[in-house]
Amino acid sequence: MKKTTIWTIVAVAIIALGGGVIYGTQKSSSNQVNAAYTEAIDNGKNAVMDKDYVRASSDFAKAGKIKKTALATAYKNQADGMLSAIDAAKDGEYTDALSTVNNVINEDHGYSLLIKQGQKLQSTLKDVKDNYEHELKPLFDQAKKAEQDKQYQEAVDHYQKILNLPYIDGKYYAKYKDKAQKGIANNKDAAKDNHSTVTTDKNSTNNSAAGDTGNAGKTGEGAMGDHKVNGKTVGASQITQLRKQLKSLGFDPMSWSPQDLIDMYRSTGHSDPSQITKEDVQKYLKP
Predict the structure, then answer these.
(1) pLDDT(254) > 90
(2) Mean pLDDT over all residues of the chain?
(3) Whole-prediction pTM
């Protein structure tokens, strides 16, 4: 065999061996990248299970840096969205919070658990917004008017009704709880400056907080402050059920404050909102 032929064979062998080494190295590197990416995604998912959206966002961002994928981007967007929605709700910005959580739910390539958590948060925030619009805001408006009229005791009464609400200690009402507490303090100070006496009745159960509520607004045995029916407090989810039942019966549910709904529910004697009939509502509305 000629020397040139031998050296050609040797050269081919060396090239083949080098190529194999390079391929093996690249494959090993690719496996390491995939493993690191998968670990970061899994860590983010575990954080979501714990509802630790700060950690989840960080882990998904890490995964995106390791390997840029639509999945990592979507998951991070969702985690960030949950954080933003929660912060907005705590600030009393319920409309913005609902808009943000809607984006979480509809995120392309979104993580199924984050979608479920977003849907649950959405349901909660709808109840919170409903309570604000139909109970908290009317009470604050009445308190403000009383302050303008220098009716300090009346203003304090309205603020106290807010503090008596069964849900006011919830984290999404903190801003308004603080506002009501400051309102009481400010009106007591104003009363002192005007040589008036102001007292705080924590068990106040004066008229409905809703003011003019269209078809509703009737006060009964359980006026403002009494949120119990059959000995059990009516929660936000039941308020929502009551509104849905009224709508199905042909009534405008948004013209009823939460307190009106509770009073009507109590008057029917039923144990479930779905049992309420049109006749029950009409009977309650009769003078």
Answers:
(1) no
(2) 84
(3) 0.69
Query: What is the 3-state secondary structure of the chain?
Result: CCHHHHHHHHHHHHHHHHHHHHHHHHHHHHHHHHHHHHHHHHHHHHHHHCCCHHHHHHHHHHHHHHCCCHHHHHHHHHHHHHHHHHHHHHCCCHHHHHHHHHHHHCCCCCCHHHHHHHHHHHHHHHHHHHHHHHHHHHHHHHHHHHHHCCCHHHHHHHHHHHHHCCCCCCHHHHHHHHHHHHHHHHHHHHHHHCCCCCCCCCCCCCCCCCCCCCCCCCCCCCCCCCCEECCEECCHHHHHHHHHHHHHCCCCHHHCCHHHHHHHHHHHCCCCHHHCCHHHHHHHHCC
Give tens-digit pLDDT for 98-145: 999 999 999 999 999 999 999 999 999 998 998 898 889 999 999 999
